[in-house]
Amino acid sequence: MLILGIDTSCDDTSVAVVEDGKKILSNVVSSQIKVHSPYGGIVPELASRKHIEMIWPVTERALNDAGVSLDDITVIAACHGPGLIGSLLVGLCFAKAVALCRDIPLVAVNHLEGHIFAANLQKNPPEPPFLALVVSGGHTSLIRVDGFKKYRELGRTRDDAAGEAYDKVAKLLGLSYPGGPVIDRLSEGTKDELGFPRPMLNEGFDMSFSGLKTAVMLEVKKLGKGKSLSEKDIKRVCASFQEAVVDVLVKKTERALKKEGLKTLVLSGGVAANRRLRERMTEMAKASDINLIIPPVSLCTDNAAMIAAAGLYYYKATIFASEDLTATACLPIGRS
Q1: Residue 132 belongs to a domain
Q2: Pairing of strands 140-147, 130-135
Q3: pTM (predicted TM-score)
Q4: At what angle are helices 162-172 and 231-260 packed, to 10 degrees?
């Protein structure tokens, strides 16, 4: 069976064709980095307008790359939340229109489920139960997964997502957008010299990164004394900030694994592409005998292949989207 996945949850227009929910035949992503870079972050209105412009060309290319047509598609899987409401509506309305015109079943997938089941696109997918850390520009959540639709959120950020904190610190330092890859690169070879706080490190499984941003801002003012920071100081700030974020993520995850008695961890989301986070999680997993699964970088950032992978479960369970389905900006999973 062929699944056409569609994701426009944020600033990337993505369409994929996935066979049997496992084999990627195509996975096209149209980035909007050049559109939003001048603003140091995503402008929602510009994002939705760009999605309108790109949704059909990206779909056409995905079908061509896979060597199939819409007549070959078994089911369409579209992300309906969480995310930017304007962006979500473009992809979802497009998916509904195609499904109606071509009489193709439609399933609606939660974006967080997509990140979790991106691990199924690898050779050795995880077997439930397992712990998933979904960490990106919009989400930072620890989720226990006992199977499809059997999720329990153990902890989440109370304010900024980790990726959002990266972008805001990068903007504070005058670095380019997106901030995560830049800070990761500048941190390499530089130690944690500034000792930024680790918010809520010993308080349950929830996280907070807004206070860390404030600490960085105060340190930048102290180091700069009204002037621009030197390249050396920028690297010191980047390395110290990154180590604080990674410390919180690794230690919270390690404690959650022990408390839940789980031996498998899925690390996903855009921040899962971070070199230092991968390195520290690998060290922790090896020391604790944890089976760590991290999708390749191309499947960590937002993409439609992961939506298709999750869509397979909806199709098998015959959970199809209704005609009045709409996008939802806030759509948590497994939260009590």
Answers
A1: yes
A2: antiparallel
A3: 0.94
A4: 170
State the total domains in the chain: 2
Point out the residues of the chain with pLDDT beneath 70. Answer: 226, 335-336
Host domain of residue 72:
2-117+299-316
- What per-residue confidence (pLDDT) applies to 233? 94
140 and 277 fall within a common domain: yes
- Whether 63 and 156 map to the same domain: the answer is no
17: CATH: 3.30.420.40
Query: What's the confidence (pLDDT) of residue 335?
Result: 66
Looking up tokens 């920028």 gives: 234
Do the bridges between strand 75-81 and strand 140-147 make them parallel or antiparallel, or are there none, so unpaired? unpaired
Write out pLDDT tens, residues 146-179.
999 999 999 999 999 999 999 999 999 999 999 9
Q: List C-alpha distances in Å: 316 to 79, 128, 172.
A: 17, 17, 47
How crowded is the C-beta side of 9, counted as CA atoms within 13 Å? 32
Question: Is the Cβ–Cβ distance between 73 and 320 less than 8 Å?
Answer: no
Both 33 and 172 in one domain: the answer is: no
Q: Which of 156, 168, 133, 157 is nearest to 241 (CA)?
A: 168
Report the b/e string of 251-262 with b at 16+ CB within 10 A. ebbbbbbeebeb
Domain membership of residue 322 (yes or no) is no
Distance of CA 302 to the CA centre of its chain: 6
Q: Specify the residue for token string 């999605």.
A: 51
Whether residue 208 lies inside any domain: the answer is: yes
Q: Do both 49 and 108 map to the same domain?
A: yes
